[in-house]
Amino acid sequence: MQTTERPAPDTARAAAWSDLLRSHGRRVTKQRLAVLDAVDRRPHSTADEVLADVRTSVYVVLSDLTAVGMLRKFEPPASPARYETRTGDNHHHAYCVRCGTVADVDCAVGHAPCLTPSEHHGMQLLTADVVYQGICADCLAAGASREQAAPEQPSAEQPLPAGG
């Protein structure tokens, strides 16, 4: 994904907006400054246009913070990307296929990478990303309650075969 850097709001303009916000009894926040900047660059904007512009700046910031290692990007199967500040320790994730809950799973054995592949293809391996897919305790409990109420309805999820 290629992103383009948005120009930072003019420092003098941001300072003027900050003063004006304070004069109206409002706190100066990054969100308010981002909205003011978006509307200033596109006069007569709709809320959807402002949202799209501000959202673009969020993606640029997330991409940048991930690139420098301050954030870690995690992409659960069939789910939007997620970000976290826990970086550099090669932990893994457990993902509930019903509700989307994500939980950290510490590295099981040894040093990073904590899994030893059968082949490294000449690469110096740095990390291993493992996604455990399952059903969280809350969803299991909710499913058990539904099954007791209507036992004739089988669950859509099938357990993975051993070793898979």
From TrEMBL:
GO cellular component, one term: cytoplasm
Primary localisation category: cytoplasm
Entry-linked InterPro entries: FUR, Fur_C, WH-like_DNA-bd_sf, WH_DNA-bd_sf
Keyword Zinc: yes
Cellular localization per UniProt: Cytoplasm
Alphabetical keyword list: Cytoplasm, DNA-binding, Iron, Metal-binding, Repressor, Transcription, Transcription regulation, Zinc
UniProt GO BP: negative regulation of DNA-templated transcription; regulation of secondary metabolite biosynthetic process
Alphabetized GO MF terms: DNA-binding transcription factor activity; transcription cis-regulatory region binding; zinc ion binding
RNA-binding keyword on record: no
Domain of life: Eukaryota
Family statement: Belongs to the Fur family.
Protein name: Transcriptional repressor
Natural source organism: Pleodorina starrii
